[in-house]
Backbone:
């Protein structure tokens, strides 16, 4: 099609010398527009997203969540707190470490902190929220798990099972988000 337009363009050149100039200007402008449009129409992460990519993003969140959960339980137990304040602290720390791991990767790419922080919030908030909801839901519903101490096998077994369930259920959420150019798709452009 471009070849036809070019032939047609040469044909008009003989009739009107100004047509060449106007047509050429329009062509340059259109080129820039197409390039600009192409950039926005296909952001990182759009299109087919592999389960491996989604699983990697979920594993990233899971690592932060696991660190936060365990640390929250250790602190809550050390201070003799009840189940609710300990769980709240664990959730807060899970978000903190989830964001921190993402931030670290983005900051390494030389991005300023404010931008990196916004990207981390956009990338991880839904993923961590879903993971924490599932993880803490399993622990809360599992008989005896809320009262299990760090020294008991039940605590670690239920934590491992709850994180595994959270991983399995959060991976499709991440796959869907990355496919829409959201979630960890935003992070990939900085790696």
Residues:
């Amino acid at each position: 099609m471009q070849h036809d337009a070019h032939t047609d363009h040469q044909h008009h050149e003989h009739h009107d010398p100004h047509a060449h100039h106007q047509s050429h200007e329009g062509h340059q402008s259109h080129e820039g527009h197409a390039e600009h449009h192409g950039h926005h129409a296909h952001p990182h992460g759009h299109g087919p997203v592999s389960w491996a990519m989604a699983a990697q993003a979920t594993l990233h969140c899971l690592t932060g969540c696991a660190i936060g959960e365990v640390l929250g339980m250790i602190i809550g137990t050390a201070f003799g707190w009840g189940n609710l304040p300990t769980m709240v602290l664990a959730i807060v720390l899970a978000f903190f470490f989830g964001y921190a791991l993402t931030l670290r990767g983005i900051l390494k790419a030389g991005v300023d902190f404010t931008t990196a922080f916004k990207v981390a919030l956009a990338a991880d908030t839904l993923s961590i929220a879903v993971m924490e909801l599932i993880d803490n839901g399993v622990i809360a519903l599992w008989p005896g798990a809320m009262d299990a101490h760090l020294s008991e096998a039940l605590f670690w077994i239920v934590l491992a099972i709850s994180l595994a369930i959270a991983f399995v259920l959060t991976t499709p959420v991440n796959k869907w988000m990355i496919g829409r150019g959201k979630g960890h798709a935003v992070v990939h452009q900085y790696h």
Notes: The first helix runs from residue 2 to 15. The radius of gyration is 26 Å.
